[in-house]
Amino acid sequence: MNAIEINNLTYCYPGCERPTLKNITVSIEKGDFLAIVGNNGCGKSTFCKTLNGLIPQFISGDFQGSVVACGLDTQEADVGTLARKVGYVYQDFENQIIRPTVLDDASYACLNYAMPDYVQRGMTALEQCGLSGKKDDFIWQLSGGQAHLLALAGALALGPDVLILDEPIAQLDPRHADTIYDLLREFNEKHGKTIIVIEHHTEYIADYCKHVMLLRDGELAWVLPAHEALTRVDELQASSIFPPQATIAAHRMKKLGALDEKTPLPITVEEGAQVFKLRENAPGPAKTESRASLLEAASFHDVQVSYRSVKGEPHVVFKNLNLTINKGDKVALIGSNGAGKSTLMKMMVGLLKPQKGDVKLGGESIRDVKPEALSRRISMVYQNPEDMFIKDSIGGDIAYAMEVRKVEGSAARTDELLERFRLTELRERDGRLLSGGQMRRASLAIGVALNPGILLLDEPTANLDIATRKEIMRTLEDMKDITETAVIATHDMQLVCEWAERIIVLCGGEVVADGTRDEIFGNADVIKKVGIRSPEIFSLGQAIDKDALCYTIDEFLERFEGRTNA
Fold first, then answer.
1. Tens-digit pLDDT profile for residues 326-352
2. pTM summary value
3. Which of 107, 361, 419, 497 is least buried, going by the fewest C-beta atoms within 10 A?
4. Tell me, what's the pLDDT at 286?
5. Using 50, 70 and 90 to split pLDDT, how confident is the model at 289?
6. 5: CB partners within 8 A, 6+ apart
7. Is the N-terminal amide bond of 100 cis, ω within 30° of 0?
8. Beta bridge partner(s), residue 424
9. Which pLDDT score, from 0 to 100, does residue 106 have?
């Protein structure tokens, strides 16, 4: 029996000239674990919203064809009935959490259906998601990862046969990302639920999914077993999808003639370790990385920060933080959700004052300095680009900070930034209506408009597909001559490895490690303590040779080219 049956589905949003989905016919088997992939704007989220009736029942438009989910026609069954069959955790999952306490929220949907056992259903869902110990907590006490699990619990409480998750790990640290996918595997294998994920991280697809569906410009390209799908390297990359790094490395080796054409492409680190073998002529360890100058840009001295709690003791973020960031540093700030990365940045720009201790910029205390007075020295680009937009055009947003400060030449500076960040043709567009990559570029342009000496970026690649993430990484590299010192808070380990020259690791309100890539990723104790998920190509190099410290595919090929079992 199939969980989903779709025939000749075509859908066009109101006011659009072209349909977003075009003549899709596909069946999704009961018990499948399916990943839906495709470039930005190809229709992935739109497709999934047809599976629970949101399209066309709440989101109108031109809908043709049929969608049958768990035996229910999504055009005939009401959305409330469909929600008990098809659970959905949205990309902006915070909007699904609406009640004040954890158990109240997990059981709320069941209460709305007048289920007499609604409390027990909510409690069971919390137990399944590992949140039973948080049942009496207020929702604002949860970390980002815990909040995502609560949204999942709310969907699970209704007992759906199908679970859909849109970008389930986009805002999560590696440890919570693994937790989410381990839970999904358990629901799939032990409870027989059909799992559908929209996912850009192909290494998770390789580890967890059974099949992959590729959408290309609103059309169904194919549905294939995961291993076969992920080894279609050229086809995936043409759709701005990047297969696992182990797969790309082996594919490139084949093109170089260093790997037998008949050798199956690996999709996991374990498979890759079987494909690549060492030879005796292995080169030595990678060169030692240099550190920036020792001129101080910002520093923290015995800083203590805590947040008041509605009940219980205040939540202590930092107890005795001492840290110096030097001029010229390119710092990646990493750690689990709730480790204090955003709090540290807010203190640097003056939005948050420590209860004890002192924060300094250039050796001067900023305790009594207002945030707006610091804007020419330090700037912060927020995780959600929409928070940077206050005018009705990108050009207006970039010019705003300069205009209110009566900066001379603001018009010319605006034109310069629009050109540098490839936004000239978009200058009259509302920033909130741009694509993800365009919004990121625009927020960066706003952040550097006043030529700050220090630039802070909070999760600059969150919620972006791999191709757009690479575009943002190129943009960051191009900014070397704009800002002297940069600090990025991120869970994106590939960004860390390809961009950062210094890595600061936070855990439990403390700096538990501070060093170069080699010093951090080569330290197994730190990796285990913090739950860092190393880039797949790094793990593959380590599986072959413990002395190998390879952070990119190019570095891996340089070290291992020719050392195969061919």
1. 999 999 999 887 788 989 999 999 999
2. 0.81
3. 419
4. 46
5. low
6. 27, 66, 67, 68
7. no
8. none
9. 97
Strand order from edge to edge, sheet including 296-307: 315-326, 296-307, 356-361, 364-365
The stretches of 157-261 forming alpha helices (DSSP H) are 174-191, 202-208, 226-230, 233-238, 245-256
Q: Is there a contact between 154 and 104 (Cβ–Cβ < 8 Å)? A: no
Phi first, then psi: what are they for 327, rounded to 5°?
A: -60, 135
3-state secondary structure of 381: strand
Phi, psi for 118 (deg, rounded to 5): -60, -35
Record the tokens describing residue 196, joined without a space.
Answer: 């559908």
What angle in degrees, to the nearest 10, is found between the helix axes of 466-478 and 436-447?
20
Q: What is the 3-state secondary structure (H, E, C) of 315-373?
A: EEEEEEEEEEEECCCEEEEECCCCCCHHHHHHHHCCCCCCCEEEEEECCEECCCCCHHH
pLDDT above 90 (res 153): yes
For residue 310, the model assigns a pLDDT of: 66
| Radius of gyration for the alpha carbons in the chain, expressed in angstroms and rounded | 25
DSSP code per residue over 69-111: ETTEETTTS-HHHHHTTEEEE-TTGGGG--SSBHHHHHHHHHH
Cα–Cα distances in angstroms (integers) from residue 110 to residues 29, 92, 116, 118, 207, in the given order = 27, 21, 9, 5, 33
Which residue's structure tokens are 């790990």?
Answer: 169
Q: How far is CA 525 from CA 178, 505, 522, in A?
A: 19, 12, 9
Q: How many CB atoms lie within 10 A of CB 428?
A: 10
Q: DSSP for 269-282?
A: HHHHHHHB---TT-
* CA dist., res. 114 & res. 158, Å (int): 11
> CA–CA distance from 42 to each of 134, 169, 200, 239, 465 (Å)?
38, 20, 13, 9, 12
Q: Is 249 left (phi over 0), alpha (psi -120 to 50) or beta?
A: alpha
Under 8 Å between Cβ of 334 and 504: yes
Give the HSE-up count for residue 394: Cα atoms under 13 Å, Cβ half-sphere. 27
DSSP state, residue 564? B
